[in-house]
Amino acid sequence: MRMLTALSDLIVPIDCGGCGRTGTRWCDRCNTRIRDAPIELTPRIDVGVPVWALGRYRAPFATSVLAMKEHRRSDLAVPIGDALAAMLGTLAQWSELPDARHLNLVPAPTRTLAARRRGGDTVTAFARVAAARLGPGVSVTPLLHTAGSARDSMGLDARHRASNMSGAIRIRAIPSGLHDRPFVLVDDVLTTGATAAESVRILAAHGISILCAAVVAGA
Ligand SMILES: [Zn+2]
User: Does domain 34-218 have CATH number 1.10.730?
Assistant: First the structure.
């Protein structure tokens, strides 16, 4: 294994996805920082629910997210997902969540085609890691997206189809038998809060009440 790592290092240099340090894909220092106590954000646009972040928009929080999105570092889903799971556990300890072992994680909307080009939706990827860590009572339900294929609007009625056309955040057909657990919106970066606010609003309009939002990096 060590030899394989050394060989691949000759082809693709290995850098820490958080700080760029060479020789490791994710260093201990970044791992310690990303697992520190969550911070509560006060976005410019009122999201309507509390918003928690692993950290501010800087290394290793913003850099790891960018590395996943722009440099195909899908391996970073593991440390980010682990840290998200730890954050949800902490929020339960702080009574911000009833129980971190029973949740529905809703990834923030992604541009379907862009996500596909990058080889997957990064937010859903690390949300799935977090869910696996927290146990069988936590599921990931991708209900939201922005621009996508016509196929995605199938199953929507005329009103929702119209909002589809406006370019706003769209909601997929809500699966029947959705578990009756608290919903947490999950995203990689929160800047103004506009996307999170619109996500919370559109989900509420469909009877899904988000308890809080959890992001990796907050501006
Ligand atoms: Zn690092």
Answer: no
